[in-house]
Amino acid sequence: MESLGDIASELAKLQELTGSEFIVQLKRITNHNGFHPIETDPNIFTMGGEQDDDYENLLSAARKAVELGYTVYILPNPRGIRTADFIFVRKGVYKMYDLKTIQGKGSAGTQLKDSIGQTNRVLLHIKSEYNGMALARSIKKYFEINPKALEVLVFKGKKVLTVKRISLQDKDFLNTFRMRYSK
């Protein structure tokens, strides 16, 4: 496995890249020799960080992604750099997600806003009862205020919902999402 040296600088480069260069950099990062599989979860790779306050939330979401067929890389959180939390790989496709764990009733909009500038894909891990219509409105607003946003992935229990920018072209997006979320 190739060594990239300082992972923080490799993560920082992502902020400047787009398109295929961005994907090539994601692949380079996942090949960093600092990653190792978690003993109990061989499809989840980490560089440590097990003592981080958010580690259990990261691991919980990563396990859910593995159930969906992804290999998951939990990214380190170097000081001074706003980075996402994960790189998901499935069938040769690399995507980077920022994890936002929703544990209260009014936090999705704030959490989504907070992810702007970290990556263009957000994973909302819903761990509480959350109103489907309120969540749909928050997701719609997120896409409206963040022109670079590509996707919001929602994990709620056994349910997985993907919302891409094109989804908002559905004139009845709010109700469609609410119904999918509430099923």
Strand residue percentage: 25-35%
- The backbone outline, from C-alpha atoms, is globular
Strand order of the largest sheet: 1-2-3-4-5-6-7-8
Q: Give the number of helices.
A: 6
Distance between the termini: 44 Å
How much is the average pLDDT? 91
What profile does the largest beta sheet have? Answer: 8 strands, mixed
Order of helices and strands: HHEEHEEEHEHEEH
User: Which structural category do the helix and sheet elements fall into?
Assistant: alpha/beta
- Low-confidence regions: 1-5
Helicity, as a percent range: 25-40%
The number of distinct β-strands equals 8
Rg (CA only): 16 Å
Task: Write structural notes for this entry.
- By secondary structure, the protein is an alpha/beta fold.
- Helix content is 35%, strand content 25%.
- The chain is built from six helices and eight strands, in the order ααββαβββαβαββα.
- It has helices at residues 7-13, 19-30, 55-67, 108-115, 132-145, 173-182; strands spanning 36-38, 41-46, 71-74, 86-90, 93-102, 121-126, 151-156, 159-164.
- It has an eight-stranded mixed beta sheet with strand order 1-2-3-4-5-6-7-8.
- Helix 3 (55-67) links the parallel strand 2 (41-46) and strand 3.
- Helix 4 (108-115) runs parallel beside helix 5 (132-145) and helix 5 packs across helix 6 (173-182).
- It is globular, with a radius of gyration of 16 Å.
- The termini are far apart.
- The relative contact order is 0.11.
Task: Write out key terms for the chains shown.
183 residues, alpha/beta, eight-stranded mixed beta sheet, 6 helices, 35% helix, globular, disordered N terminus
